[in-house]
C-alpha cells in the first residue's frame, strides 16, 4: 500500500505534467494581486493604443508558450462585464466579453491587428 507522501508525489507529478499545477499557481498569484489592488484608485480608460499594446503583449506571451504568464495578464485586467462600447469593432473579437479595463477576453483577430499596425504577414510561416 502506498504512503500518503507517495500519493502526494504522484498527484503533484500528474498535475504538473497536465499543466494544471502551473495554471493554478498562476491563478492564485493573480488573485493575490487582485486582492492587494487598491480599488479606490480608478483605472484609466483604455486607449486604442494601449488596447493594441496589450494585445501584442498577449500574442507574444502565447506565441512563446508563456501561457501562465498570459493568464496572469488577463486575470490582472479582468473582472468580466458584457461587451460594451469600446474603441475597436465588434468583429475584431469573438464577442465573449471584455475585462474591467475594456480589453477583450478573447484575443483580437490577427488580421485586425495587422491592419491596425500597418504590418504585413509572411504567408509561409504566419510571422509578422
TrEMBL record:
The keyword Cytoplasm applies. GO terms for cellular component: centriole; centrosome; ciliary basal body; motile cilium. InterPro entries: FOP_dimerisation-dom_N, LisH. It is found in: Cytoplasm, Cytoskeleton, Cilium basal body; Cytoplasm, Cytoskeleton, Microtubule organizing center, Centrosome, Centriole. Keywords: Cell projection, Cilium biogenesis/degradation, Cytoplasm, Cytoskeleton. Residues 49-75 form the FGFR1 oncogene partner (FOP) N-terminal dimerisation domain. GO terms for biological process: cilium assembly; microtubule anchoring. Its main location: cytoplasm. PANTHER family: CENTROSOMAL PROTEIN 20, FGFR1 ONCOGENE PARTNER/LISH DOMAIN-CONTAINING PROTEIN. Belongs to the CEP43 family. This is FGFR1 oncogene partner (FOP) N-terminal dimerisation domain-containing protein. It comes from Theropithecus gelada. The lineage of its organism: Eukaryota, Metazoa, Chordata, Craniata, Vertebrata.
